[in-house]
Amino acid sequence: GLDASRLIKAASGFPLPPGIHFSYGTAGFRADGSILDCVVFRAGIVAALRSLNTGSTIGLMITASHNPIQDNGVKIADPNGDMLSQEWEPFAESLANESNLENVVQVVEDFMQKNGVFKVSASSGKVLLARDTRPSGGRLLDAAKQGVEAIAGVSAEVIGVLTTPQLHWMVRATNRGVGASEHDYYSQISSGFKCIVDMIPMRKNLASPSELVIVDGANGVGAMKLSGLQAIIPNVQLNVRNCGSEGGILNELVGADYVQKERKFPQNFGHASDLTKMCASFDGDADRIVFFYSQKSEDAEGITLRLLDGDKILTLLAIFIQKHLQELRSEVHWLSSVNFGVVQTAYANGASTKFLKENLGVEVVLTPTGVKHLHHKAAQYDIGIYFEANGHGTVLFKEEFFAVLTKTAPSEFRTEAAYKAARLLLAISDVVNQAIGDAFSVLFLVESALQYMNWTIQDWDAIYKDLPSRQLKVKVQDRAVLRTTNSETKVTHPQGLQSAIDMEVAKVTCGRAFVRPSGTEDVVRVYAEAATQDEADCLARGVAIHVH
Ligand code: 16G
Ligand code: ZN
User: Pairing relation of β-strands 154-161 and 125-131?
Assistant: First the structure.
C-alpha cells in the first residue's frame, strides 16, 4: 500500500500556488517556470505510480519545448518511450490541482484502487529524469526527484541534461534490455547511418568526402548534444549555429517553431554565403526539425527562405522507404502482405497528401493534432511514418516485422536486391528514434536518403509544390464550445458553423479550411489553403469572422 505519512511529509514541501488551474495539455504541463515546483513534484508521483503499475522504467522530462526561456514544463514517457497513456491524464491533472494535502493522499489512493496499481505490478519501480537547458530546470528536476521518491519502492535516476527524444529513447532501450546510455544512443544512429551510406549504389561526387549541413540549434540542448554525434558520423560536415553561447537566447528569433510559423530565417542565417546550402532548424528540446535553404529573389533583401516542413520530410521518407519495401515485397513472397502507411493531421498541406496518395499510392490517414494521436495510428502498420507539418514525426517498425527482418537468413531472400533492401530497412530502423520524433534522427535519416538518391535539397523541394496556406488565431469567450469530428476537419458545434465554412470554401479555387480549439493556448485556430495566396488569406479571414 501507500505510505501516507511519507507522501504528506514530502508534499508539504511543495505547496500549490493559489488561484491557478494547471491542465495536462497536448504535451504535459506547461507554465512559467517559477510556479511549477508543485506541479512537477506531483508529476514525479504520477511517474512513480506508473512505474509500479507497468512494472517498467518510466521517464520524466523537464522542458517547455519551443516556449520562451522563462517557461518550463513536464512530460512523462511510458515504457515504450511514447507519451504517458491518455487514461492517466485526468489523474495527473486532478493530482496537480489538489490544494488540500490530505486530499492529495486521497486522490492517489482512489486512483490506485481503481486501477489496481499495486495488484498487477512490481514492488519496485524506477524513473529516469532529465531536463533541457532552461535556467529553472535544475530546481524543477530536483522537485520531480522528490516526487518520485515520495512513493516507497520507486527510485529516481537523474540523468541530467538531455534532449527530450534522448530521454524517451533511453526509457525504451532500458525496458527492452539493450544498452541505454547516451553513448549507445549516438552509436546506434551513427552505425545505421554508416550502413545506409555504405550501400549507396553510385556516388556522384567521390571527390567531395562529405556534405555540408548548417544547423540552427535554437540556442538549446540540441546544439549542445549534437557534438556527441558530430564526432562519430562520417560523410557529413555540420556547421552548428545558435548554440546558446554568444548571448543567444533559447527560442528567441531562432528554432524550428519560429522558422515554420514565421517563415523567416533564424538569427545568423540568410546570408548570401549560405545561398542554396542545406539548412536545418531544431526546436528547443530537439524533438522537432524543419529544413530550409535560401534562394535568390527579386524582392528588397534579395534572398528568400524556402521551407521544407514536416510534410516534405514525410514525403521524402515515404519515397525512400517505399522503394526498398517494394523490392522486398516483390521478391520475397511471404513479405508481400507487409503493409505501409503514413499519418498526417488536417494541417498537412493538401499538395503533400495528394502526392502521397496519387503519385506514391500509399495509404494516408489523418488523426487529430498531437503526437500521441499520430504515433498510435502509425504503430498499427508494419512500417508507419507520421509527421505533423510543424516537423514532429518519426518512423515506426512493428515488432513482428522487425523480427522477421533481423532473423531471416541472407539465403532466404532469394535475390541480392531483396537482401539489400532488408538490410537498408534495418539500418533505417537504427537511425530513427522509434520512441518519439527526434531532430537528430530525422536530420541524419534525411541526409542519408538524399545521399542515397543523389538528390540536393532543391531536388527534394521540387517533389511537389505547396499549396498557399494561411493560419490565424481567434480569441473567443470559451473555446470549449467548439467541437470537431473527422480528425478536426469538420465542426459539429456550434451548429451552423460548418455550413458557413463550407460556403466560404466554395468561394475560392481548390479551397480547404478548418477550425479547431488550440490545446496549448486560449485561442481557436483557423487554417485555410487555396490555389493562390490571396485566396488562402481571404478564405482564412472569411472563416475567422464566423468563429467570432
Ligand atoms: C503540442 C504538440 C504538438 C502539436 C501542438 C499543437 C506534442 C509533443 N506536442 O505542442 O504535436 O502540434 O501541441 O498546438 O504532442 P495547438 O493545439 O496549440 O495548436
Ligand atoms: Zn519540442
Answer: parallel
